[in-house]
From TrEMBL, chain A:
This is Multisubunit sodium/proton antiporter MrpC subunit. It is a multi-pass membrane protein. It is found in: Cell membrane. The chain crosses the membrane at residues 6-25, 32-50, 62-82. Its main location: membrane. It comes from the Bacteria. GO terms for cellular component: plasma membrane. Coiled coil: none annotated. Keywords: Cell membrane, Membrane, Transmembrane, Transmembrane helix. Belongs to the CPA3 antiporters (TC 2.A.63) subunit C family.
From TrEMBL, chain B:
It comes from the Bacteria. Keywords: Cell membrane, Membrane, Transmembrane, Transmembrane helix. It comes from Halospina denitrificans. Its main location: membrane. It is found in: Cell membrane. This is MnhB subunit of Na+/H+ antiporter-like protein.
UniProtKB/TrEMBL annotation, chain C:
GO terms for cellular component: plasma membrane. PANTHER family: NA(+)_H(+) ANTIPORTER SUBUNIT D1, NADH DEHYDROGENASE. InterPro entries: CPA3_Na-H_Antiporter_D, NADH_UbQ_OxRdtase, ND/Mrp_TM. Keywords: Cell membrane, Membrane, Transmembrane, Transmembrane helix. It is a multi-pass membrane protein. GO terms for molecular function: NADH dehydrogenase (ubiquinone) activity. Belongs to the CPA3 antiporters (TC 2.A.63) subunit D family. Pfam families: Proton_antipo_M. One of its GO terms (biological process) is ATP synthesis coupled electron transport. It is found in: Cell membrane; Membrane. This is Multisubunit sodium/proton antiporter MrpD subunit. The chain crosses the membrane at residues 6-24, 31-51, 77-102, 109-127, 133-151, 163-183, 203-229, 241-262, 268-290, 302-323, 343-362, 374-393, 413-432, 453-473. It comes from the Bacteria.
Automatic annotation (TrEMBL), chain D:
The chain crosses the membrane at residues 30-48. Residues 14-78 form the MrpA C-terminal/MbhD domain. It is found in: Cell membrane. The keyword Transmembrane applies. InterPro entries: MrpA_C/MbhD (IPR025383), Nuo/plastoQ_OxRdtase_6_NuoJ (IPR042106). It comes from Halospina denitrificans. It is a multi-pass membrane protein. Its main location: membrane. This is Putative MnhB-related membrane protein. GO terms for cellular component: plasma membrane. Gene3D superfamilies: NADH-ubiquinone/plastoquinone oxidoreductase chain 6, subunit NuoJ. Keywords: Cell membrane, Membrane, Transmembrane, Transmembrane helix. It comes from the Bacteria.
Length: 107, 232, 490, 96
C-alpha cells in the first residue's frame, strides 16, 4: 500500500458517488456535477494506479491533462445547452411533463 | 415502493461498482507492469526537444491526442457560439458594479496576465504550459467581462471564429508540413522540434483562452427570440 | 511513399476543412465542402486500393512507435470503413448542401461540425491506442451533439442533452477501463496489450477493465436496454444529420467494442458474457422492430429501426467466442457486411424520409397518403433501402444475415436463427406499414412540394449500393480480411 | 506517519465534499462545495507529484468550471426570460 494507491481507491469511491448521483439526480446541472465527480475519480485512478509501482509517470499525467481539457469542453458545452434549454422551456430536468409530445416533432 | 426502489437500485449498483473497482485495483496493484513506459520515456527525452516530460508527451510523443483534444475544444466553442444570441455585450445585466470586483480587477488582471505568460514560458522545462496558461488567460477575460469591460472581439463574428480556429490551424499546419517534409504526420523535422513546440504552445494558449471565454460569453442570457424554431 | 502522402491527406483534409468552413458562411462553406468531399473520397479510395494491393501497415504518428507514441492501424477492415465513411458522409454532405436552408444563420456552423465528425470517424476506424480512441470518441460525440442541437428548438435541445449525457457517461466508463488497463500493463496500445494478455496471471483487473469499456461502448452504441437516448436524437435532427448519426456514428463505438472483443475476448471473455451481450442484441432486434412498427412519426420509425439493426451487430459476440475458426470468420464477415449495408441503407432511408417530409410537410406516417401516386420516386428509394433492411436477396442485408445464419448453424447456436428470422419479419412489417400509408389514395390534385432532383438522386444511389452489395461482397470481404500480418509492405 | 495521516485526511475530505456536492439541497451551495472539491483535488495532485495537473485543476477545474457553473446557477435563479414565468419550481433547483 502506497499513498498513490490510496488515491486510486479514493478515485474508485468518487466514481461510485458520482455514478449514484448521475443516475439519481434529476436536475441537469446536478447531473453535470456528478459527471465531473466521475471524471475526477477516473483521473485519480489513472494516475494513482500507474504511479503505485514506479513513482511519477509523465504519460498518465499527460493523459489526465488531456482528459481535463476534454471534460471542461464537454462541461462547458453542456452548460450552454442546459441554459438554452431552460431559457426556452423553463425546465431544468429532462423528465419534463410534456415529454409525450416531445418525441420527434421537428424537422 | 417505487420511490424506494428508485433510490436503492442506483445505490446498490454504485456500491457494487465501487467494490468491484476496489477489488480490481487491489489485484492490479499486486503485479508489476510488463511495460515500463517511464523508463522508455526517459530514454527518449533528449530527442523530444523539451526538458519537461509531461510537455514532451503532450506535444511530441502523443501530439495527435493533443491535436484532437484541441479539436474537441473548438467543437465545444463552435456549438457554444452557435447557441449564442448575445445582441450586445454591454448588457446592463452583466455589469457588476461591485467595488470588490473592481479592486480585484485592478490588481488581478495584470497579475494574471503575468502568470499566464510565466506558465507558457515555463512549459518547456517546468510544470506549466499552454493549457494552464490558456486557462489563466481565460480567467482574466472572465474577470474583465464580469466587470463590464466590453470585449468586442467576443461578438459572434469573423474575428471570434478566427480566434477559435487559429491555434488549431497552426497546429494542423505544422502537422501536415512535417508530414510533407519528413516521414509521418506530426513528425517534427529534426532540429526544428523546440521552436515548433514553442510556436504551437503560444498559439494554443490564445486559442484555448478564446474558446473558454467564448463558451462563457455565449451562454444565452439576454435573448428572447427562439431562432428558427424547429423548421428547416 | 504514396501511402504516407495518402495518410497525411486523410488525416489533414477533414480537420483543415473544418477550420476553413468555420471562417465561411453556409453557402461558401457549401462550395468549399464539395471540393473537400471530392478530395476526401479520392484519398480514401486511394488508400483502399493501396491497402488492397500491398496489405495493411502500422502508421506511427509523429514518427514514434507504439508504447511511447500513437500508432494507427491501417488494415483492410479499417480502410473499408474509411471508404464507407467517405461514401456515406459525402452523400449526406451533398444532400445537406441542398436540403438545409442557406439563409438560416445557424447552419453556418453545420460544415465545421460535419468535418470534425468525419475526422472523428476516421480517427476511430484507424485508432490503435486505447486513449486515442477515447479522444476520438469524444470528438465524435461532441460534434454529433452539436449537430443535433443545431436546430435549437426545445425538443432538439432536450434530445441533444440526453444524447450528450449518455455519451459522456459512456466515455467515462470507457476511460475508467482504460485506466485499469494502463495500470495493469503499462501500455495503451491495443496490439501490445493483446500480446501481453496470454502471459498475465491475475485477470481480475483486465476483466473489470474490459467490462467497463464494453458497457461504456454499449451505452454509446445504444444497445438495448441503454437505447433510450437514440430515437429522440436521431428522430429530431435534420435528416442529413440523422443519416450521419444512424449510419456511421453509432457504428464507431460498436467498432471499438468489436475490436476489443476480438483482440482480448479469448482471455477476458466468458460464455456467459458472450451470451448475455448476444441476448441483449437479440432483445434489441425484437424490441426495436416492435417499437418501430408502433411509431406514428416517420423518422421515429427509422430511428427505432436503427436500434433493431444495431442489435444484429452484437450477435458477433456469442458467434465468435469459443467457436470454430470458420464460424468465427463467418460471423465477423456477417458483422462487417451488416455494418456496411446498414450504413448505406439507413443513410438512404433517412435522406429519403427527409425528402418525403419536405414533400408532404408532415412528420406523420399518416401524412404520406397519396405519395405513391404523386411522388413515386421519393418513395422508391425509401422502399429499396427497406428491402436491404428486411434482408431480402440480393441485398447487402441479406448477405449479412445469411452469414450470421451460417455462423449460428456452424457454432450450434440455433437460437440466434430465431432472432434473425423474427427480426426480418418485423422489419418487413414496419417497411410495409409505410408503404401502406403511402398507397392510401388521396383525392384531389398534387399539392405536394417536389424536392429538387439532386435530393432524390442521392438516397437512390445509396439504396442501390446497399441493394447491390451482395453482388460485390466477395471482393469486398477479401479486402476486409487483410490484416497486418497478411500484407507486408510498410 | 504524518504523511499517511495527511493523505488519509485529504482522501476523507475529498469523499465528504463529493457527497456534500451531490446531497446539498441548494444548488448554489452545491456548486460552491464543488469548487472546494476542485481545490482539494489540486492538493491531491500535488501529493501525487503531478504539479502540472494541479495547476490545470486549479485554473480549469476549480476556477473556470466554477465560474461557468456559478453563472448558470444565477441564471436559473433569475429564471428564464422566456418561458420560466409561472414555473417557480424550476428556478431554485430544489426539485428532486
Amino acid at each position: 500500500m502506497t499513498p498513490s494507491l490510496l488515491y486510486a481507491f479514493a478515485g474508485a469511491g468518487l466514481c461510485g458517488i458520482g455514478m449514484f448521483g448521475f443516475i439519481q439526480l434529476r436536475h441537469l446541472l446536478r447531473k453535470l456535477l456528478a459527471f465531473n465527480l466521475i471524471g475526477s475519480g477516473t483521473f485519480l485512478v489513472l494516475v494513482g494506479l500507474a504511479q503505485h509501482g514506479q513513482g511519477p509517470d509523465a504519460v498518465p499525467q499527460a493523459l489526465v491533462l488531456t482528459g481535463i481539457v476534454v471534460s471542461i469542453a464537454a462541461t462547458a458545452l453542456a452548460i450552454v445547452l442546459i441554459r438554452r434549454y431552460f431559457h426556452l422551456s423553463g425546465h431544468t430536468s429532462l423528465e419534463a411533463d410534456d415529454s409525450d409530445s416531445g418525441q420527434g416533432g421537428a424537422e | 415502493m417505487k420511490r424506494i426502489l428508485a433510490v436503492t437500485l442506483p445505490l446498490l449498483a454504485s456500491m457494487a461498482l465501487v467494490l468491484l473497482l476496489g477489488a480490481s485495483l487491489w489485484s492490479i496493484a499486486g503485479s508489476q507492469t510488463p511495460v515500463n513506459l517511464p523508463e522508455l520515456l526517459a530514454g527518449k527525452m533528449n530527442e523530444s526537444g523539451v526538458n519537461h516530460p509531461v510537455t514532451a508527451v503532450l506535444l511530441n510523443f502523443r501530439s495527435y491526442d493533443t491535436l484532437l483534444e484541441i479539436a474537441v475544444l473548438v467543437i465545444a466553442g463552435i456549438t457554444g457560439i452557435s447557441m449564442a444570441r448575445t445582441a450586445s455585450l454591454e448588457d446592463p445585466e452583466l455589469r457588476t458594479s461591485d467595488s470588490l470586483l473592481y479592486a480585484l480587477q485592478r490588481w488581478f488582471i495584470p497579475l494574471m496576465l503575468l502568470l499566464a505568460g510565466y506558465l507558457l514560458w515555463a512549459g518547456a522545462d517546468r510544470p506549466g504550459g499552454a493549457f494552464q496558461a490558456g486557462a489563466v488567460l481565460a480567467g482574466c477575460g472572465v474577470l474583465m467581462r464580469l466587470g463590464g469591460i466590453p470585449l468586442g472581439f467576443l461578438r459572434p463574428g469573423l474575428l471570434l471564429r478566427v480566434g477559435l480556429g487559429l491555434g488549431f490551424a497552426v497546429f494542423l499546419l505544422v502537422a501536415v508540413l512535417s508530414a510533407m517534409a519528413g516521414e509521418a504526420f506530426l513528425a517534427y523535422p529534426p532540429g526544428m522540434t523546440k521552436p515548433l513546440i514553442i510556436t504551437i504552445e503560444t498559439v494554443l494558449t490564445f486559442s484555448i483562452a478564446m474558446v473558454l471565454l467564448a463558451l462563457f460569453v455565449s451562454a444565452p442570457v439576454n435573448d428572447a427570440g427562439a431562432p428558427g424554431e424547429d423548421d428547416s | 511513399m504514396i501511402t504516407a502522402w495518402l495518410m497525411a491527406g486523410l488525416l489533414f483534409t477533414p480537420l483543415a476543412w473544418a477550420v476553413l468552413c468555420l471562417l465561411l458562411d453556409f453557402s461558401r462553406g457549401r462550395l468549399v465542402s464539395c471540393l473537400g468531399i471530392t478530395v476526401q473520397v479520392l484519398v480514401s479510395l486511394g488508400l483502399w486500393v493501396a491497402v488492397a494491393r500491398e496489405g495493411g501497415f502500422l502508421y506511427g504518428l509523429g514518427g514514434w512507435e507504439a508504447p511511447l507514441g500513437i500508432e494507427l492501424r491501417v488494415d483492410g477492415l479499417a480502410v473499408t470503413f474509411i471508404l464507407l465513411t467517405a461514401i456515406v458522409a459525402g452523400a449526406c454532405g451533398l444532400h445537406a448542401s441542398v436540403y438545409l436552408a442557406p439563409d438560416n444563420a445557424w447552419y453556418r456552423y453545420f460544415w465545421p461540425l460535419f468535418w470534425f465528425l468525419w475526422a472523428g470517424l476516421n480517427g476511430v476506424w484507424l485508432g490503435g491506442d486505447l486513449f486515442n480512441l477515447y479522444v476520438g470518441l469524444e470528438l465524435l460525440s461532441l460534434s454529433a451533439v452539436g449537430l443535433v442541437a443545431l436546430g435549437g428548438g426545445i425538443n432538439a435541445l432536450r434530445a441533444s442533452l440526453r444524447y450528450l449525457l449518455a455519451a459522456l457517461l459512456g466515455s467515462m466508463a470507457y476511460l475508467l477501463g482504460v485506466a485499469l488497463m494502463y495500470g495493469q500493463f503499462g501500455t495503451l496500445s491495443i496490439a501490445g496489450i493483446a500480446s501481453l494478455l496470454p502471459e498475465t496471471q491475475a485477470l481480475v483487473g483486465p476483466g473489470m477493465a474490459m467490462a467497463l469499456m464494453l458497457s461504456g461502448l454499449a451505452l454509446k452504441t445504444a444497445l438495448f436496454p441503454l437505447h433510450g437516448w437514440l430515437p429522440p436524437a436521431h428522430g429530431i435532427a435534420k435528416s442529413p444529420v440523422s443519416a450521419l448519426l444512424s449510419a456511421l456514428v453509432v457504428k464507431a463505438s460498436f467498432y471499438i467494442a468489436a475490436r476489443l472483443w476480438l483482440e482480448f475476448g479469448h482471455e477476458l471473455g466468458s460464455t456467459a458474457v458472450a451470451q448475455l451481450i448476444g441476448g441483449l442484441g437479440g432483445a434489441a432486434v425484437i424490441w426495436g422492430s416492435w417499437l418501430a412498427c408502433r411509431q406514428s412519426q416517420l423518422k421515429q420509425v427509422v430511428a427505432y429501426s436503427s436500434v433493431a439493426q444495431i442489435g444484429y451487430l452484437f450477435l458477433l459476440f456469442p458467434l465468435t467466442f469459443a467457436v470454430s475458426d470458420t464460424a468465427s470468420l463467418q460471423a465477423q464477415q456477417g458483422m462487417t457486411l451488416q455494418v456496411v449495408s446498414h450504413a448505406l441503407a439507413k443513410a438512404a432511408m433517412f435522406l429519403a424520409a427527409g425528402n418525403l417530409i419536405l414533400a408532404t410537410g408532415s412528420h406523420q406516417v399518416a401524412g404520406l397518403a397519396g405519395v405513391s401516386h404523386f411522388l413515386p420516386f421519393s418513395l422508391f428509394s425509401f422502399g429499396l433501402a427497406g428491402v436491404s433492411l428486411m434482408g431480402m436477396p440480393p441485398s447487402g442485408g441479406f448477405a449479412a444475415k445469411w452469414m450470421l445464419l451460417q455462423a449460428s448453424l456452424a457454432s450450434g447456436q440455433w437460437w440466434w436463427i430465431v432472432v434473425l428470422v423474427a427480426g426480418s419479419l418485423l422489419s418487413a412489417a414496419y417497411v410495409f406499414r409505410i408503404y401502406q400509408a403511402s398507397f392510401v389514395a388521396k383525392t384531389g390534385v398534387d399539392d405536394f412540394y417536389h424536392p429538387p432532383g439532386s435530393l432524390e438522386v442521392i438516397p437512390l444511389l445509396l439504396a442501390l449500393m446497399s441493394l447491390g452489395l451482395a453482388l460485390v461482397a466477395e471482393p469486398l470481404l477479401s479486402v476486409m480480411a487483410l490484416s497486418l500480418e497478411t500484407g507486408g509492405a510498410p | 506517519m504524518l504523511e499517511w495521516f495527511l493523505d488519509l485526511l485529504l482522501v476523507t475530505a475529498l469523499l465528504t465534499t463529493a457527497i456534500a456536492t451531490l446531497s446539498s439541497r441548494d444548488l448554489f451551495r452545491a456548486v460552491v462545495v464543488f469548487i472546494a472539491f476542485g481545490l482539494l483535488m489540486a492538493v491531491a495532485w500535488v501529493r501525487l507529484q503531478a504539479p502540472d495537473i494541479a495547476l490545470a485543476e486549479t485554473a480549469i477545474g476549480a476556477g473556470l468550471t466554477g465560474v461557468l457553473l456559478l453563472d448558470a446557477v444565477s441564471h436559473f435563479r433569475r429564471g428564464g426570460t422566456v418561458a420560466a414565468s409561472g414555473r417557480s419550481d424550476a428556478a431554485g433547483g430544489r426539485e428532486q
